[in-house]
Structures are given as structure tokens and as C-alpha cells.
Amino acid sequence: MKKSKVIKVDYLARVEGEGALYIRYDEAGVDDVQLKIFEPPRFFEAFLRGRDYLEAPDITARICGICPVAYQMSAVHAMENALDITPANEIRELRRLLYCGEWIESHVLHIYMLHAPDFLGYESAVAMAKDYPQIVQRGLHIKKIGNAIVNLIGGREIHPINVRVGGFYRMPTVSELQPLREELLKGRDMAIESARWVASLPFPEFKRDAPFAYEFVALSHPDEYPMNEGRIISSTGLDINAQQYEEYFAEEHVKHSNALHSVIKGREKGKDAYLVGPMARYNLNYDRLSPLTKSIAKEIGFPPFCDNPFQSIIVRSLEVLYAFDEALRIIDSYQRPHTPYIKTQAKAATGYAVTEAPRGLLYHHYSIDAQGKITEAKIVAPTSQNQKTIENDLRYLVPHYMHLEEEKLRALCEQAIRNYDPCISCATHFLKIHREKNE
Amino acid sequence: MKPLIISIGNRYRCDDGVGPYTFDLLKPILAQSSDFIESTGDTSALLDIWQDRDKVILIDACCSASTADAADLSTIQTGQIFRLDGLNENLPADNPVSSNHAISIANAIELARLLHQLPKSLTIYSIAGNNFSQGDVISPRLVIAAQKLAALICNELNSGDRACTNTP
């Protein structure tokens, strides 16, 4: 009789999402993988109902302490879509600058504090700092500059309060942005060093060939690397607008997770997962990165297409560099508009928006009544969309590394989860592994 | 250089807001003689905030027996005030359940130690809370404790003694 082994993690600790991991496998392969998200539902969509449409950006920002800007951006764009308004270009650009700040702080936190220790064999960033103090210091410094952008444009570093439907409550002056520019120049140099260092890390081999190859899904915009706007495209030819999202993507409840699993509709069971986030953005939008970012990618030998999720840390480091470059471009061309926002008038309507949170596509859909009260809200977060792909990665990864001793295999599985920077990723340093052998 | 008083805590999670509450009590009294920073929750930012400072006082909430599972916390009473030398005493281990992407204060101190970004003196005051649910009401026992702590800190800063320093 075959020997069955189980990797079981009861509690993914120190996370925003509460989860566990269960993998049952034997010599023939993996029988079952379950990324168990048991965090209780938070009912954000339910308690948005009845609230004023102007409150949506500030309420949804509270969903995440790391990417509140993403929630604000998707919320304001969905409401503006509902009300048929298009803010001035200066507002559009400033929103993009705010998003640059969030990408920098979120990506750098993940690169330096959560993911890099995996590649170098440390249990935490603190342990890594003993041997690599200057590296960790650099990470903290870069993150601080991202915080400064969000603080200046958003009003505070975490859960910013300056974003509103139609624009901002207050727009900064040109001179207020200048000190930030100096910091961004320094930060861009550090981001280049960061990309070079990340590229030097040792990466586990992992590839998913057809028919199990990834389906990458991201926004795409003809003129820019996607953040706030664009069409939803995929590596297999999907090309839709935000309003069509629910026609092509569905959420399913699975017994082992309180977070719904997203799938592409109409696909065969087991082949309906897709991947959102930096790797998808990069693969589908490489040509719209800045010349500097592309030149550094070339210098470090990183190709325009990446399908090893362990190398998503390189993509993040390149996106950080891009965000610095883009932030500088925006500041250099910034002109303060006469009014910080367009006044809006409530009407019964429905609106849709998708933006690119650091972890990937973030879909918002709202209906409001004639008084501007929200009657319906639907929010699909990137981690929810990646859950099925994370499970599939573990399913394909474990058979290739079954020769590893138990502790190393567990660590590799944790690292594979962290490739996606899910809100559950920071817990995995505290996982426990149990092996069950059945003769 | 003026002493720096830092509060940590969420004003909208009831007793977790006791740090900012104490901060509000102290600010009008010590505004001329001390600097004040209310932490946004990004504990990694503390390293830059307190680096090169002579004296830092950090105020936070902690769990009491009624909120903690750990047996070694069973004697901690709601409203109890703790004073720790942040440079020489170890903070309790992380509670893995309660944190998010942020690093813990204990980790921030350890990181600062490794990166040579600790202040010369770091005193941590903590008040044990009972209710960390949503809301902005602080338990009456913590309100009394915060007033007591504010007086203690005023006294400490005025007398200039009891410093927790890393200067031999």
C-alpha cells in the first residue's frame, strides 16, 4: 500500500487573512491541496449598502492596511463610471502618483521583510538583518519614500483621507512636490540597486508547461503601464472592459475557504484558474515599462516574459523602479488644477472599475439610487483571484521536490505561497508541519 | 534634544486607543518641552523616528488576563501599568494572531538594535486593556490608568531620572 504524507498547517499566523495549509501527497503525486482561509467574512459589501456613494472610498480603504489606495482608486473610478464623469488629467495623474507610492511601500515591504528571507534561508527579516544590515536598511529607506508619497498626496501614510469621488479634497502645490522629487531621485537609485540585488538571489526551478501553463490576467492601457485604467486582457486573448468582468469571471464557494475562489467562466473544471498580480502585469505590459526599467531588466538578464512565480520578486523590484520613474515623470509635468475635484450629483446608476492593486486586479461594482445611497456592492480582491492558482502551484511543485526533507519541503511550500504576496503570506514563518504515514 | 513621546494604538479599537488617549493628555502639558508623534501603525517607521534621539517614551496598550490566552498573562489586571526598559528588557513574544503585515514593536526594537538605529534611552509604558473591539470608548479603568500614567511621565520628564539608557 502506498505511503501517504500530509503537510498540515493549522494556523497561518501574523496575517491579515487567517488561513491554514493542507497538502496530502504520496510517491505518485499530490492527492489534495487546500489553502484554507478561515477568517470570518467581513461583510464590507453588506455594510456599504445604505451608505452614501461619497463614503465608498474611505470605507473600502479600511479593507487593507497595505493597499488602501487600491481600494480607494477602484471605488472612485466605479462611482465616476456610474455618474458618467471624467476628472481632469491633472487629477488622473495625481491618482497615478498616489498609486506609485502604494506600489513602492507594498512591494518593498514584501521584497525585503517577507520574501527575501526565504531565498537566503532566514526565518525573518530581523534574522536576515544580522547578516545583511545594509540591505535591510535600504529596503526600509525605499519604503519610507513610498510612505512619503502616500502621506503627501493622501494626507497620511496608512488609510489616506484625501481621496474623493471626482478628485481630491486638496491638491498639493507644485512647490510642495519638490522636496519629494529629491527623495524620489535618491529612491530611484536605490531601486536600481535593489533590482540588481534581488536578481542575484537563488531561485528554485519551477515551470508549468501546457496544458497547465498559467493564464495571466491584467489591465492593459495603450499608453502606459497599467494602474488605474485599461481593459482587462489575458494571455489567451481575453479583451474586455470592467463592466464585462462578471460575464467572464465568477466566484465559487469551496468548503475549505471563507474566501471565494475566482474562476474564468466556461472553462473545464481544473483549468479555470488564472493569475493576477505583478507577473501578469509584466508579461502583458512589458513594452509599456519605462526605458530605464527595461534597461535594468536587460542588464540583470531578466526576460520580458516570466513564468517562474519564485521570480515574481524580481518583477516586484522592477515595478518599484518603474514606480519611481513614473512618479518623477508625473511630478515634473504636474500643474495644479483650478479645482481639486468635480462636483458630483447623485443619480440612480451602476458603475464598474478595475484597477491594479500591488497584488493584482481589484474589481469594484456599485449600484446607487437617486439619493446616492449604495444599493449594491461587489468587491473582488486579487488574493481571492489567485487562491486557486496558489493551490495549483503547490500541486505541481511538491512532486518535483519530494526528495527534500520534511522541513525543507514545508519551507518551500510556504515560500511558494509567499510568491503571491497574499495577505496571508507573512504568517508562514510560523507554520507547523505534521507528517502522517499510513501503511 | 527634546524627549520624544510616541503613542501606538488604534483610536477606533476601544482600549487599544489608550496610547493615543494618554498622548492627548500629555500634549497640552508638555508641548513646549517634548516632541510628540502618534504612530500611524507602520512600526518599521519607528527606526527613523527615534534614531539619534536622547530619550524616547513609547506608550501602548497590552493584553490583560481577560483578553489573553497565554497562561503567563493570567495575573495581568485591566488598567495595570507596565514600565519596561526598551533597550535592556525583552518585550513579550509576538502574539501571532493579532498582527498583520506590520512588524511588531519587539521586532522593530531588535531591527533598530541590529541597524544601530536605537535611541539612547527608550522607555516603554503599557496599559493592560480589556476590550479591543470596534469603537472609540476606552474602559473606565484604563481612563484612570491613563491619567495616572500621564502624571508619571510628567514626573519622570521633570525629574530627569529613571532613564532607561544604553549609555554605560
TrEMBL record, chain A:
PROSITE patterns recorded: NI_HGENASE_L_2
GO molecular function: ferredoxin hydrogenase activity; nickel cation binding
Family: Belongs to the [NiFe]/[NiFeSe] hydrogenase large subunit family.
Positions of Mg(2+) binding: 45, 379, 429
Protein name per UniProt: Coenzyme F420-reducing hydrogenase, alpha subunit
Membrane-spanning intervals of the chain: none
Keyword annotations from UniProtKB, A to Z: Iron, Magnesium, Metal-binding, Nickel, Oxidoreductase
Automatic annotation (TrEMBL), chain B:
Tree of life domain: Bacteria
Record keywords: Aspartyl protease, Hydrolase, Protease
Signal peptide residues on this chain, from the entry's feature table: none
Molecular-function annotations in GO: aspartic-type endopeptidase activity; enzyme activator activity
InterPro entries with a match to the protein in the record: Pept_HybD-like_dom_sf, Peptidase_A31
Protein name as catalogued: Hydrogenase maturation protease
NCBIfam families (alphabetical): hydrog_prot
This protein's record includes keyword Hydrolase: yes
Taxonomic source organism: Neptunomonas antarctica
Keyword Iron: no
Record-stated family: Belongs to the peptidase A31 family.
SUPFAM superfamilies: HybD-like (SSF53163)
A GO BP entry: protein processing
